[in-house]
């Protein structure tokens, strides 16, 4: 198994299941983000594969941001006429004109770290020189690779502490966390659509000590954390 350590100043994983005045973030990336991150490093779509990860951040804050509204059909002709006449000379004209902007309030996680576990050596090597930019959410949430290391995750380890991650929900679990519907696969084309989702438990507390009697978690002895591996299906 290979462990890839990534860091980023900020991260945002939009929780589409919340309907509030604030765009909320998951406290841990969904599998769709992880597969997208791996695909960006490799340079082509990679899914599904067996993968595990632990995600942590220092604190969460809120920020205001301007986003571009969707272009209305009634404004499309006006926009085309302005462009043809050469009257759109800067991005500011577009933002203030046919598109327009709206302010939103967004949750942002700060000082983030992701430990990513993969079995394929070629995927691990790809992170040493990623094909595309690595992101933990939005285009501004740039991530960099701190380390790529071969590690041995131990089996049959009991009375262990688990890392912050997500696991598929099951009726009987030793751990507790927040239940959420999260995307697993999304389309390549824009606007992106979720093609598969699942119900997961987000483990937000990395102080949970479990017996691990069913060997659900492997153990990273260096980090002293249990790691859940999402198996290839």
TrEMBL record:
The keyword Ion transport does not apply. InterPro entries: CRISPR-assoc_prot_Cas5 (IPR021124), CRISPR-assoc_prot_Cas5_N (IPR013422), CRISPR-assoc_prot_Cas5_Tneap (IPR013337). It holds the Pfam family Cas_Cas5d. One of its GO terms (biological process) is maintenance of CRISPR repeat elements. Keywords: Antiviral defense. This is Type I-B CRISPR-associated protein Cas5.
């Amino acid at each position: 198994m290979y462990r890839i350590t990534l860091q980023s100043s900020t991260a945002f994983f939009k929780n589409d299941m919340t309907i509030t005045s604030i765009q909320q973030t998951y406290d841990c990336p969904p599998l769709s983000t992880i597969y997208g991150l791996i695909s960006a490093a490799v340079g082509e779509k990679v899914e599904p594969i067996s993968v595990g990860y632990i995600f942590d951040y220092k604190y969460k804050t809120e920020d205001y941001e301007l986003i571009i509204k969707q272009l209305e059909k009634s404004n499309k002709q006006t926009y085309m006429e302005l462009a043809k006449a050469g009257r759109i000379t800067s991005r500011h004209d577009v933002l203030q004109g046919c598109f327009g902007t709206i302010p939103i309030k967004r949750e942002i996680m700060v000082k983030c770290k992701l430990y990513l576990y993969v079995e394929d050596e070629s995927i691990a090597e790809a992170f040493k020189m990623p094909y595309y930019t690595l992101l933990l959410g939005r285009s501004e949430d740039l991530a960099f690779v701190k380390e790529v290391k071969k590690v041995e995750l131990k089996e049959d380890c009991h009375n262990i502490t688990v890392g912050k991650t997500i696991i598929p929900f099951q009726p009987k679990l030793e751990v507790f966390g927040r239940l959420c519907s999260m995307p697993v696969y999304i389309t390549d084309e824009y606007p992106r659509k979720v093609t598969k989702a699942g119900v997961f438990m987000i483990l937000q507390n990395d102080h949970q000590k479990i017996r691990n009697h069913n060997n659900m978690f492997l153990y990273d002895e260096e980090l002293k954390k249990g790691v859940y591996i999402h198996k290839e299906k």
